[in-house]
Amino acid sequence: MPSRPLRAFRLGSTLARALPRPVADVAGRLGAVLTVPVAGARRAQVERNLRRVHGAEFGGTTMRRAVVATFESYARYYVDSFRLPGTSPADIEAGITVEGWDKIDDALDNGDGTGVILALPHLGGWEWAGFWVTACRGRQLTVVVEALEPRDLYDWFVELREAFGMHVVPLGPGVAAAVLGALRAGHVVCLLSDRDLDGSGVEVEFFGERTTLPAGPATLALRTGAPVFPSAVYFEGSGHRAVVRDPLDLTRTGRFRDDVVRITQDLAHELEVLIRAAPEQWHLLQPNWPSDAPQPKEGSGDEAI
Questions:
Q1: DSSP 3-state assignment of 25?
Q2: pLDDT of residue 166
Q3: Per-chain mean pLDDT for the chain
Q4: pLDDT tens digit string along 72-97?
Q5: Residue 272: which residues within 8 A CB-CB, separation 6 or more?
Q6: DSSP letters of 164-209?
Q7: Fewest Cβ atoms nearer than 10 Å: which of 2, 84, 193, 287?
Q8: Is the pTM of this model over 0.85?
């Protein structure tokens, strides 16, 4: 029997595709507004993220509106994704503008056959852009995704993305080999790079605080020679706008580990630029900095001795 989360996502997908687009959008926004008061830890995380972008003084009515806008953006991400199956390449093309894609074409067509890495934050509607890459540009696209629980929900999302022509690689022990193979086969590899899921990343400064970010983009680039392009996809009006920035500097300057740290720090600064352009579309709802962790209460017995 399908799990409860899978049944919920299937229902949402069915409704999103059955309803006229304006109605689906209104339903998504209404759901977001109703979710905010009960979102608890996720709402608090969004507030912390917005203060990181706008400054510690950010608050009040402006903060409340920005939090609602973030949840509305997240709802739109799902409405878009659910409606993508069956969307024609012509409609995909009409629904997006892409700045800087010529850099990707040049790297793929004039290089040594090695693919490229797109390093993205959890921002806007990247699924639409991924479908555009496969359906409208005819490029092979590999994406690395978190292995969700329950398993049937993860399998459902894999099927959804494979329907868009994406090659899906789950985060886990075999991810490095799979991505290396994809790069050597000339794929565009998408790596969400603003959250260190497994805690194995390198320490950097990100929005003024020390945290860890994934070392994968830098490590893979140094091992294969694949360029790393910081990128993002924004909701803009009723459509989407994708931005591909210049590739990171991969020049070797010292020990391999030191170069990985330097490149990852450069990527962190690039991600900051991309996120600051639309912080209310930043769908990072999980703790990402040490200061996000719950602090022990005084007298709880958890203090260091």
A1: helix
A2: 95
A3: 93
A4: 999 999 999 999 988 999 999 999 99
A5: 206, 207
A6: TTEEEEESSTTHHHHHHHHHHTT-EEEEE-S--TTS-SEEEEETTE
A7: 2
A8: yes
